[in-house]
Amino acid sequence: MAQGAYSGRAPMAPGTAGTAVGVLAYLWMRRLSPGAYVLSCILIVLIGTWIAGQAEGLLGKKDHPSIVIDEIAGYLVSAAMLPGTWVFIIAAFVLFRFFDIMKPYPLKRLQNLHGGVGIMFDDIGAGVYTNLVLRIVAEAFNV
Known about the structure:
Helices cover about 70% and strands about 0% of the residues. The chain has 6 helices and no strands.
């Protein structure tokens, strides 16, 4: 689970591959009611935090690149309650990867937290940044 159905084992760009799994999860979850979507995201973040911490111990490396449950959860936060059009789905993918890689303040600090919390919460923050930017865009264009 931490490796996102083995997407984290991709030989190149495992975080991008994990984010693609996040898109697939979103395509299924977007049919849920808003409350069920949010509840599902909360559960994925909570369970993912525990799983990421366990995987980190098993893999013997802090935030091992093959752990991508954080990218999956981060993408789900990125796309939460936004228009479900392909423009927004792709924009969320690109912006999320940008924020996840660049780690603007204070995301880099979150990454330094211990265990699963440090693995997950910088990506959740990148998802929040992405979601806020896309909400502004949606509002600006009355989408």
